[in-house]
Amino acid sequence: MCGIVGAVALRNVTPILLEGLHRLEYxxxxxxxxxxxxxxxxxxxxxxxxKVAELEKALATSPxxxxxxxxxxxxxxxxxxxxxxxxxxxSERLAVVHNGIIENHASLRRKLxxxxxxxxxxxxxxxxxxxxxxxxQHKQDLLSAFRATLNELHGAYALGVIHQxxxxxxxxxxxxxxxxxxxxxxxQFIASDPLALLQVTDQFIYLxxxxxxxxxxxxHEVWSSNNQVxxxxxxxxxxxxxxxxxxxxxxxxxxxxxxxxxxIADTLEGKLADNQVLTAILGPEAENRLADIQNIxxxxxxxxxxxxxxxxxxIEEQAGIACQxxxxxxxxxxxxxxxxxxxxxxxxxxxxxxxxxxALRYAKKQNYLGTLAICNVAGSSLVREAGWxxxxxxxxxxxVASTKAFTTQLVALLWLTTALAQAKxxxxxxxxxxxxxxxxxxxxxxxxxxxxxxxxxxAQSFAGKHxxxxxxxxxxxxxxxxxxxxxxxxxxIHAEAYAAGELKHGPLALVDEDMPVVSVAPSDSLLEKLxxxxxxxxxxxxxxxxxxxxxxxxxxxxxVTHIELPWVYDSVSPIVYTLPLxxxxxxxxxxxxxDVDKPRNxxxxxxxx
Length: 609
Ligand code: G6P
Description:
Its main location: cytoplasm. Catalyzes the first step in hexosamine metabolism, converting fructose-6P into glucosamine-6P using glutamine as a nitrogen source. This protein is an alpha/beta fold. It has three domains: 3-237, Aminohydrolase, N-terminal nucleophile (Ntn) domain (Glutamine Phosphoribosylpyrophosphate, subunit 1, domain 1, 4-Layer Sandwich); 249-448, Glucose-6-phosphate isomerase like protein, domain 1 (Rossmann fold), CATH 3.40.50; 451-601, Rossmann fold (3-Layer(aba) Sandwich), CATH 3.40.50. Helix content is 35%, strand content 22%. The chain is built from 18 helices and 25 strands. Strands 3-2-4-1-10-9-11-15 form an eight-stranded antiparallel beta sheet, with helices on one face. Strands 5-6-7-8-12-13-14 form a seven-stranded antiparallel beta sheet. Helix 9 (302-319) packs antiparallel against helix 16 (476-491). The longest helix is centred in the C-terminal third of the chain and has 22 residues, at 428-449. The termini are close together. The mean pLDDT is 92. Residues 301-304, 348-350, 353, 356, 400, 402, 602, 604-606 line the site of 6-O-phosphono-alpha-D-glucopyranose (G6P).
């Protein structure tokens, strides 16, 4: 999705802005641009379609330097991807970059057109530039004009603004889209994601909804939506130690797949004792209320939603708590019935997904016992707004296709299930077994990742395929859903997942030799049922690929390939069986020659609805 970087410094900020944009590339975008102010040359703007590298090429022909600047990567919402729609947008002597969507842009555009402003783009953002220029003409004071502009905007925004008349000031604001201030020594920055600024600072101020700010070399002033002066603590970025390059790996996705043993170990750190889980990490209020929870509603999007679907099986079986799981974009717009003592759980890698955040805000107005965010980013909006938090420690995830964030979410959810079982005094064997399985998990994951060469070979058989089916049962059905999502995200093969028992209710009609069928076949209580479903596929000439437990006893025959996994304890099995599916989609994408880390049309962090 769109990204913002801005800087005010004594030095030329062009390299800082470009490096920031590079660091935001993983989020997905279609064009990039920047605007710079210097005391000699005035306001300069350079924009380019495509990658940040294209912007760099454009800058090589028309160099732009300045001590104050704003930059942007755009992911089209209003107006097709095109240079004239790329940010920054100008009006008179000012420039604006914007993330989010201005919902009343059409009426503002009409009003500004009547006032004589002409539009050079199809974006909603350009109305902000003209509206600000209009208010500035009347007020002759940029801060007041900025405030008057913000008061007229409906929708979501993170904004960066510079104006030739105030060459020492960088203005910004946030409402519904993330924005941080980066604090340097005699230099200040803004960005939509702290990652963009880690080359210049690890000190951040996280703006809250409705805040606006003015940055100068000397520091920053922050105000609330009703213009009250605010003083926020400066926080050190927690993932600063993580490496943000690919190292020896060809893609971030592969690096992140192989980081899973460490990410899982980090997520479990300080949370396990000998025969129990340590719940103090949730904070005293949450810890004291665990035993009261009678229902759980889980709300999330994309891969995080799949993590919730797996957790439902665990929570209902092991903690005896009723659990429902829903995508946030549906949940937020319906009337939800909330039984007494229900916990709302949101799951998000980024903590900035617009629908998940809106779902949390909606839930906070309902009668929930508490709201818990399971999230990978400590300073994110979701974490700050939820009542309770449980952080995963996956480190920054750059590949658009989520891998280590998913498995660490599952680890956090299995830990939560165990904490609930413990609080409800369920059978101690469940708790002991989960603690043991979690403790051994990083080693097991390491072992399963060694299956890569066999999976790489197998990926060749997908070369000419356009469709694939994924089958699973029980908690491995959502694992199959996640496998199908990974394959379609990065290899563009149409893939669907079915609960294996549903096969004969429709999808079996699709099965022939051109339809690879991938099954997730651990050695659990549903294995015999699954075997019958696989026979149904074989009988119709379908090519079967089984990721199966070495003890499953599946027979090898023509058209059937097995990749064998070690026997694992039931609870952690969905986590372990996710790994070969990640590797399969990665290697199929290599065979297909797609852009693995930045698949077309997708964004890492979906900060608009
Ligand atoms: C986007 C990403 C997915 C992710 C989903 C939810 O669609 O491409 O990988 O699962 O958003 O993101 P979140 O950050 O809330 O987990």
